[in-house]
Amino acid sequence: MTQYWNPRDVIAYHCTKDLSQTQAKLWSFIYGFAESLVLKSAIQLDIPDIIHNHGKPMTLSNLASRIPSPNGAADHDRLFRIMRYLVHMNLFTKESIDGEDHYGLAPPAKYLVKGWEKSMVPSILCITDKDFMSPWYHLKEGLGNESTTAFEKALGINIWDYMSKNPKKNSIFNEAMACDTRLLMSALVSECKDMFEGIKSLVDVGGGTGTAVRHIAKAYPHINCSVYDLPHVAADSPTYPEVTRFEGDMFKFIPKADAILMKCILHDWADDECIKILKKCKEALPSNGGKVILVDIVLNALSEHPYTKIRMVSDLDMMLNCGGKERTEGEWKNLIYAAGFSRYNIRQVNAIESVIEISTDPKNTPNGARQISA
Predict the structure, then answer these.
(1) For residues 310 and 301, what is the distance between their CA atoms, to the nearest angstrom?
(2) Angle, nearest 10°, between helix axes 47-54 and 32-44?
(3) Which of 135, 236, 260, 312 could crosslink 320 through cysteines, CB 3.0-4.6 Å?
(4) How wide is the angle at C-alpha 43 spanned by C-alphas 39 and 44, nearest 5°?
(5) Helix, strand, coil shares, percent, the chain, to 5
(6) Model confidence over 17-34: pLDDT tens digits?
(7) Taking the CB of residue 103, how many other CB atoms lie within 10 A of it?
(8) Listed ranges 126-130, 160-164, 234-238, 242-246; the one with the highest mean pLDDT
(9) Residues in domain O-methyltransferase dimerisation (predicted)?
(10) Can you state the angle between helices 32-44 and 76-88, rounded to 10 degrees?
(11) Confidence label for 364 from pLDDT (cuts 50, 70 and 90)
């Protein structure tokens, strides 16, 4: 016998289903912090490294016995509940072997293993650091017209002074920047080889620990590479035989070179400051063949690229921490033109950031370059 639904029951059913889905979505946003902090705890407990070094999936009891704890082995029930959530996040696997559950690493977890060039551990520890998360609690206050950032409201000091006065936090921050650089530079060096042709000298402005420019120096040993940053950054940086280090302020002076690299620098600053920095770059370059290589996000909120959401989150991050922003191509074009340049080219690489190549030579326009017109 065919059963017919009362139209009112059908409407009630779909309303209930839609309500449940909507509320579930909102609850997932409300508890969105949980995933990043559970992930952080897994790293702090060395879970990815313990399983990786073991070489195969481990039982819960075996895993618990390996986790450092001041009171002996980790509590099995608590560890089980953390692992259950990590499996739900598809970062770890669970399989039954001989009637006992064994936990292994899912493919994304390789980026949670420490000590290799594509490990994302430093970025995770930096972004989830209690101090570095605190500006997000001041998002509302940060909407005011005054120049004070949410970072200053949270910690009572601007981010640059904070880094210079807190060596441990500065180290965490620099390690995270170096982590991001390692993920990016293999793509930059392999996908933009023609961009380095004819360059004899290159200075990485705001280059931090020198990770980026060292990749270039190794890939192109004919280029005389140097890194230029503030004194407190240099004090926390290793020395490399293939890289020369200079200390200074990019707003006052930039060393002369055939090419200037700036990776994730201009997004820290408002438009006026960016124009000042780009003008200093122009002064440091030869007029007949120099170039600025910007590695920064080109924002397109309508894009369906998997990095689009991360790029928009980074835009808020810049606003909160330093008053900077991520920019669209149109906004980049305005800055480049205002600084006195007339040609640029945007290259998409396998990274969150893009590469913006700006040329000073009117006869040597970058491949596919956009000509800026007034």
Answers:
(1) 10
(2) 50
(3) 135
(4) 115
(5) 50, 15, 35
(6) 677 888 888 999 999 999
(7) 23
(8) 126-130
(9) 27-114
(10) 120
(11) low
- Say yes or no to pLDDT of 7 above 90: no
**What is the token pair recorded at 149?**
């950032």
HSE on the CB side for 259, CA within 13 Å? 22
Which pLDDT score, from 0 to 100, does residue 338 have? Answer: 96
- Give the HSE-up count for residue 288: Cα atoms under 13 Å, Cβ half-sphere: 0
Contact 153, 141 (CB under 8 A): yes
Q: Looking at beta carbons, which pairs linking 276-279 to residues 24 or more positions away fall under 8 Å?
A: 276/251, 277/205, 277/250, 277/251, 278/335, 278/336, 278/338, 278/339, 278/340, 278/341, 279/339, 279/340
CA angle (129, 175, 230) in 5-degree steps: 105
Backbone angles phi, psi at 182, to 5 degrees: -60, -40
Alpha carbon 347 to its chain centroid, in Å, reads 18
Q: Which pair of structure tokens corresponds to residue 158?
A: 């601007």
> In angstroms, rounded to a whole number, what is the distance separating the alpha carbons of residues 165 and 235?
12
Q: Cβ distance 9 to 100 under 8 Å?
A: no
CA quadruple 214, 218, 224, 230: dihedral, nearest 10: 0
Whether residue 361 contacts residue 289, with contact meaning beta carbons closer than 8 Å, is answered with yes
CB 251 within 8 A of CB 206: no
CA distance 47 to 67: 7
- Put the strands of the sheet holding 370-371 in their side by side order: 243-247, 224-229, 201-205, 259-263, 291-296, 354-359, 343-348, 370-371
Residue 166 phi, psi (nearest 5): -130, 85
- Give the separation between CA 92 and CA 86, rounded to whole angstroms: 6
| 258-309 per-position pLDDT tens digit | 999 999 999 999 999 999 999 999 999 997 889 999 999 999 999 988 999 9
- Based on the residue annotation, tell me whether 267 is a catalytic residue of this protein: yes
Query: What global pTM score does this model have?
Result: 0.83
Residue type, 114: K
